[in-house]
Amino acid sequence: MTVKARVRGILAPPPVVLMGIYAALAMTGAILLKVPGATEISITWSDAFFTAVSAVTVTGLSVVDTGSAFTGFGQVVILILIQLGGLGLMTFAVLVLTMLGVPMGFSRRQYLKEELNQTSASDLVKLIIVIWRVVVVCELAGAVLLSAVFVPEAGWLRGTWYAVFHSVSAFNNAGFALFPDSLSKWVGDPVINLVVPALFILGGLGFTVAADIYQGKGRRSWSVHTRLMLTGTVVLLVFPTLAFAALEWSNPQTLGQFDSIATKLMASWFQAASTRTAGFNTLDISGLEDATSLMFMTLMAVGAGSTSTGGGIKVTTFIVLILATIAFLRRRMIVNVYGRSLGPDQFMKVLAISMISVLVTLTGILTLSILHEGAFLDIAFEVVSAFGTVGLSHGITGDLDTPGRIVIMITMFIGRVGPLTLGFLLATKRPHRISYPTGTVYLG
Fold this sequence. Notes:
two-stranded antiparallel ribbon; 1% strand
């Protein structure tokens, strides 16, 4: 059978299948969260669905307090949803098939290629194995280190569970915490301020970057994607940390309440690192200055790395967008970076991702503004946080009615599945049978 014939044998395009899988997972999670043994209090179906979608999309927005509203069973369900949603169901499927010795068929490789945002379906199993090694090492190490904080305060059993839950939630950039004020209690704790950011930064770099570094071939052998991602991550950690400290230093609702310079700097670092996709916080986000909120919205829109557990348009997309703009101003059609060239096809993909992201976000803001009364900045912040699968909020999540929750759930789902996948569903690729003369459109 030829490759084309086998492609036609796929019942649905990979993006459609993956969207269906994520939707089914969210629905299953909601049902499990509604069983009597999953909650300490009575919750509605709206509460259950919102929590399940937020967990599957590794967002972290919550309408109920995770730690007090759900029993141990309910928290385990949420943690499984986070792990499945963060790493992707296809990675689990490939892992099981590989362990059982079942060969990977062409259709399965196509689904996995779409899930991991790869241009080639070859060597995907090797990438999955590397991913799982990184995941196990990072989450176990994180749980052990966090136990040093939680076990002395909560005892061995509960403290260990706290450590495991927050380690998995952090690495998957989910932002779910078992405390009503997230991690604010440990705003000055060096272990929390180092381990938790290290976990969500590693998870947010992307699995292709992890594979490059894990193979240990040296920086010269790293791909241009890895180099761009690492450079962009450093810049997007350093600059926001300094900017946050400058903007919030005297704000009595955030940094101004602390006398210790070390605590202020740690809080600035944590918030700046968490904002792009993690969703944890050690300060009251609703107390931010407007300028800081705008900076946070920009960072949330950028997000984490491609093929990572985070959301947003992705760091490399943002960098290529800047490079394409510079290239246009210099009247160049190709960008040279790290000894490689990026051509018009890359620019078109970046343009598509950015445009769809803007349209989805603006539509969400407009719809929620109509459905929910409140400050415009709070509404815009909520929608951008949902699309970037971040989970930070100005405190209006619990006030949303059912229509408002639906808007946020749809936005979270689209943010996780990917703007380009949405574009894939809206357009059908057809061969061009007719060529037209070049036309001119005056722009700018």
